[in-house]
Amino acid sequence: MPEQYPYLQTLSDKDKPADMKVLIRGDKNNQGDVAPRRFLAILSGKDRALFSKGSGRLQLAEAIADDSNPLTARVIVNRVWQQHFGRGIVSTPSNFGQLGERPTHPELLDTLASEFMEQGWSLKKLHKQILMSATYALSAEPVEANLTQDPDNRFFWRANRRRVDAETLRDSLLFAAGELDSAPAEKALMLDDEKNLKRTVYGFISRRKVDGTLALFDFPNPQATSESRMSTLVPPQRLFLMNSPFVEQRARALASRLTGTDEEKVKQAYRILFSRDPDATELKLALQFLGQGEWVQYARVLLGSNEFLFVN
Amino acid sequence: MERRDFLRNVGAGFGMYGLAGVLDAANPLAVRPPHFEAKAKRIIYLFLNGGPSQVDTFDPKPMLAKYHGKPMPAGNLKTERKTGNLMRSPFEFRRCGKSGIEVSEIFPKLGTVIDEFCVIRSMHTDRPNHEPSLLLLNSGDKLPGRPSMGSWLTYGLGSENQNLPGYVVLCPGLPVLGHQNWAANFLPAVYQGTYVPMGEKDPKKLIAHIRNSSLSPEKQRLELDLLEQLNRHHMKKEGADAQLEATIQSAEIAFRMQAEAPDAFDITKEPEKVRGRYGDGDFGRGCLIARRLIERGVRMVQVYFGNFQPWDNHDDIEIHRPLAEQCDGAIAALIQDLSASGLLEETIVLVGGEFGRTPAVEVGGLVKVQNGRDHNNHGFSYLVAGGGFQGGTTYGATDDFGFAAVEKKVHIHDLHATVLNQMGLDHTKLTYRHSGRDYRLTDVAGNVVKDIIRA
């Protein structure tokens, strides 16, 4: 058999599926009562019917995705919202129960959830719906009156400014340098391998030892599930941006992409990194700096600047 | 926008600053005067994550041997999992020091410095699960979202060393909940803990990228100056923002760290004999680094025992023995060194986990061995040394079997209030206005435990 081969995991029912006993805390040596195969009482009531077709796996999937069960759609819609806005409509994405936070916009959550189901559970359509909303189009600009009323932006009156996550940062650095190889990787690649220019999503993740740069930018502990990312802003991250060979190499590559006079090169750099031209102040600071410092240094400053590290 | 305006505007926080001292607008980590004269200036918090068992470490219960294998007369309290009959400690306790405080045989070296510790035997907290209890111990609330104690302290007092982060967290790997444990949350982000992974033995690799291999400090300064100018210009256009401000601050600290951190974190500069006393393990090296950071004026260093939750011995309490072996010498060495240099006087050393364990055997979990104990928030022990705490004493008590705190109970809010008190801070006055109200580390609770501190 070749080392790597395409495969698809499938499941099939046993000939004679049977009920299992509860394994208390997952331990097969510690068995509790028999648990007949059926859906959760909390979502379908005590008198719910037993699963009757085969193992019941298909019926379980159908019950989870049933139109009469609002929880599944609410949960995934909330996660997508969280990804786009930095906070969910329910700010405790794994806890919609008593100990969780209440939704800030319950009607919005239900509208998005029901339309998501009507649209055939299409994540693509959900993304589009959120991204085309007036709320998503808001800038991060502060408004004094709103800051006083709602300093946490619980009601989404402006965009949340967010530091890019570890994967986005690495990909963006490679992209700005013109080096990103966006073709899918055939297998997981080590992220500390300097020859690895693929997107970070193809990086090898060890449960025992997370890659140092990922960890530095708040990649969660892979031994546990993670409902959302932390976003710290600490000095060791700056040390990576100032001193790491990885960033140095990206700065070199970015500097070498630029052509023409110093002014033209500065403009190109701004267009690549920020999709805009530098303003007069930025141009002046650049030309002043280039009188003393080198292009690689200038490129590194731009790659470590707040405009590059944050999305609004 | 001027920095002064920024500080006034961001989150309306500094406007409500609860201290008499004038804030140095240019530097959020500048030293600020406490509310009243402080007994302590710094904290080392040794966090034995997972939940060490009190009845096997610092809270001996002879009745457990008598009732071994029998049910708890009054019935077991509710904890996370199902527990059965009472179980004696497999370890013996010995009287230690002049005080004669009883310490488990698994901590022989710590026993020799027990006279420096106040052993609080009546701690209790609100939840028998790791996540909420970690948050309670670190931030005073069971849900994420509150600033950690180290963040409150650096917010309240600044830091005495501007070349190092004011609040440093050392851990091999990550504890449960990871960075949330040392988050600043709604306090300005500059007050969050700086995490240094302890898995690396070579001090030169411990703080990644601490040196630039090709630039002189002067040339690098040019980069940093341009960076700050561009970032300030950017913020002027974007409007004041705590995160944008935090990266500007952390860039400055990073630049200065390059000069001081290699030395501070390099334990090979300690004599081999000293290193031997701390041990070569992650926790031992962490304790030694903590000492070196405290000597340099870092406000708070938290040393986690290990990745995930090593002390969580549900199935076999015997595992406490090798765990204790990994920290016994280091804790003793740290106390001895701080005591010898006089720093212990003004340094609080906290030792404890997120909760204790049940005196009854756990039967609801991994039961192959059935020699372990479940989580227990009803009663557990904490050790506190230095910083004006009463060494060589015990305080409070659990019931006859060590299940629940019954005498002179100390809630984690009380511990926080007392620690802040020793740092010269009134826990009811160290506040931050957020979401329309003033928040504190102790929420709306907490009493200073006067009996465990020197007058």
Helix-strand topology string of chain A: EEHHHHHHHEHHHHHHHHE
Large-scale geometry of chain B: globular
Determine the structural class of chain B based on helices, strands and strand pairing: alpha/beta
How large is the count of helical segments of chain B? 12
How many strand segments of chain B?
A: 18
Low-confidence stretches of chain A: none
Largest protein interface, residues of each chain: A-B, 60 and 71 residues
In CATH terms, what is the architecture of chain B? 3-Layer(aba) Sandwich
- Estimate the mean pLDDT confidence of chain A: 92
Q: What is the strand content of chain B?
A: 15-25%
Which structural class matches the secondary elements of chain A? mainly alpha
- Identify the overall geometry of chain A: globular
Q: Poorly predicted ranges of chain B (pLDDT <50, ≥5 residues)?
A: 1-24
| First and last CA, distance of chain A | 49 Å
The string of secondary-structure elements of chain B, in order, is HEHEEEHEHHEEHHHHHEHEEEEEEEEHEE
Q: Supply the number of helical segments of chain A.
A: 15
Give an overview of the whole structure.
The complex is a heterodimer of chains A (312) and B (455). The longest helix of chain A has 16 residues, at 70-85. Chain A folds into three domains: 20-64, no CATH class; 65-160, no CATH class; 163-312, no CATH class. Chain A has a two-stranded antiparallel sheet. In chain A, strands 3-4 form a two-stranded antiparallel sheet. Chain A has helices at 41-44, 57-64, 70-85, 106-118, 123-131, 134-137, 144-149, 166-176, 212-216, 235-243, 245-257, 262-274, 280-292, 295-303, 306-309, and strands at residues 20-23, 31-35, 162-163, 310-311. Chain A is mainly α. In chain A, helix 12 (262-274) crosses helix 13. Chain A is 44% helix and 4% strand. By secondary structure, chain B is of the alpha/beta class. Chain B has one domain (31-207, 265-452): Alkaline Phosphatase, subunit A, CATH 3.40.720. Chain B contains twelve helices and 18 strands. Chain B has helices spanning 3-9, 62-66, 108-112, 130-139, 149-157, 203-206, 217-238, 242-264, 272-278, 282-295, 320-341, 412-422; strands spanning 42-47, 83-86, 93-96, 101-104, 117-124, 167-171, 194-197, 300-304, 347-352, 356-362, 373-376, 380-385, 393-395, 397-398, 405-407, 410-411, 432-434, 437-439. In chain B, strands 1, 5, 6, 7, 8, 9, 12, 13 and 16 form a nine-stranded mixed β-sheet that branches. In chain B, strands 2-10-11 form a three-stranded antiparallel β-sheet, with no helix packed on it. In chain B, a hairpin with a 2-residue loop joins strand 17 and strand 18. Chain B is globular. Residues 1-24 of chain B have low confidence and may be disordered. The chains are: A mainly alpha (312), B alpha/beta (455). Chains A and B meet through helix 9, helix 10, helix 13, helix 14 and helix 15 of A and strand 7, helix 7 and helix 8 of B.
